[in-house]
Amino acid sequence: MGRVATKDSTPSRPRSSAKTQAQKRLAGQRALAAAGGNRSSRRRRLFITLSPIVAVVVVVAVLIGARLGSASGSPASGQSVTPASAAVVGEVTAVPATVLNTVGAGSVTTLPTAITGTPLTAANGQPQILYVGAEYCPYCAAERWGVVVALSRFGTFANLGATASSPSDVYPSTATFTFHGASYTSSQLAFSAVETQSNQVVNGSYTPLDTLSAADQALMTKYDPSGGIPFIDIGGKFLISGASYSPAVLQGKTQAQIAAALTDPTSAIAKAIDGTANVITAAVCASTGNQPASVCTAPGVVAAAARLP
Amino acid sequence: MATVAETSARRDGRVGYGSLAVALAGLAISAYLTVEHYTASTLLACPESATINCQKVTTSQWSHIGPVPVAVLGLGYFLAMTALCTPPAWRHPTLDRVRLVAAGAGVVSAVYLVWIELFRVGAICLWCTAVHVCTLALLATVLWTTSARRP
Fold first, then answer.
1. Residue A107: which residues within 8 A CB-CB, separation 6 or more?
2. Integer distance in angstroms from the first to the last C-alpha of chain A?
3. B3 in helix, strand or coil?
4. Where in chain B does DSSP place strands (E)?
5. pLDDT tens digits for A260-286?
6. Is B42 within 8 Å of A50 when comparing Cβ atoms?
7. Residues A272/A96/A287/A223 CA torsion (nearest 10 deg)
8. Which residues of chain A have a pLDDT value below 50?
9. Do A242 and B121 touch (CB under 8 A)?
10. Do A93 and A145 touch, CB atoms closer than 8 A?
11. Which chain A residues are within 8 Å of B55, Cβ to Cβ?
12. How many CB atoms lie within 10 A of CB B28?
């Protein structure tokens, strides 16, 4: 009995301890199982999350690889410059005032910005319009139409060339003029045009044409540090950077078709080009003291002037 | 002491906030691109080179889908996703499918726009790329949070 009693009484603590240890072991196993389950769940979630992301990254990488593989590495040459036909020049430089007045600001999407500083003048004291562009540039191609229509109200162009923007850029082969080799005379203002590059490719790049003077370069650096073209400084009072309308309007059209459309105020081409011309005219009038009055007070110009900043 | 489930829920909650943060970032960039679209492209602070040219992309003929500018579509998308990723919206499991489909549609649209940039415009817009990254990150955060609710 004594031994039994001893056996029964003294091991009561070890049995309790063993029970506690078993409970701890069980809790540990449960925690391990929970942690294992948590890790498994986390792996599953990572798989669900990352699979589509990796797939998208692979697709984009394939697209970039395909683009790099298909890129020729250099642009293609565009249409060589030829003298603009007399018929086209005649239509563009003499758009009827009734049409211009009907169009007003037309479908111009990007208006000139007002700039402050020293007025831009030529050596003879006349207000100066500085144009900087390039023959390959599709936005310059679109903007030249409006420039020619507008400045023809103040003076006369000579030796305008016919060409097109690069066939390998956006809005490929947009029909246009070139100011390289052209001249302009006016009793109201001076026009200085710089076509920095042609649309002809030699050794992988467009051949250089005109060189920017240090003063012109300084103006571009001041007002358009990114170097975007076309860049048009209108008498130091207004700045046009980029096209005033989308060159998409001119896609697939020949010079003759574009010129012919300018006399139809309901056409998309007239709304874009004649509208741009009225806006440019209004900006120029701010430098010429609203002279000539017949131009600067025309209803189309007045309507465009109301849109200027 | 927090249980594993509670800890996991708190973690999930943080990821839910992550999706909201990504949606807000996308919303901010889309708003900037929309403002730029309706003001003047010269406001767009973007470096210009042969391959990186924001103005070339945002003024291209593919910058509209029908009459609606892509920038405005992006703004509308991130507005909707911001609403779907707020904590009250996350508390409605019925919105899980809507969120997933919307996030997936956003990524598909982004891949399409990358294709347009590479093969049609021939230039990359950095701000647009930032929006595309936000779209992908949004899908990741939505998937991560939603997968925690499913067995």
1. A245, A249, A268, A271, A272, A275
2. 113
3. coil
4. 64-65, 68-69
5. 999 999 999 999 999 999 999 999 999
6. no
7. 20
8. 1-11
9. no
10. no
11. 228, 242
12. 14
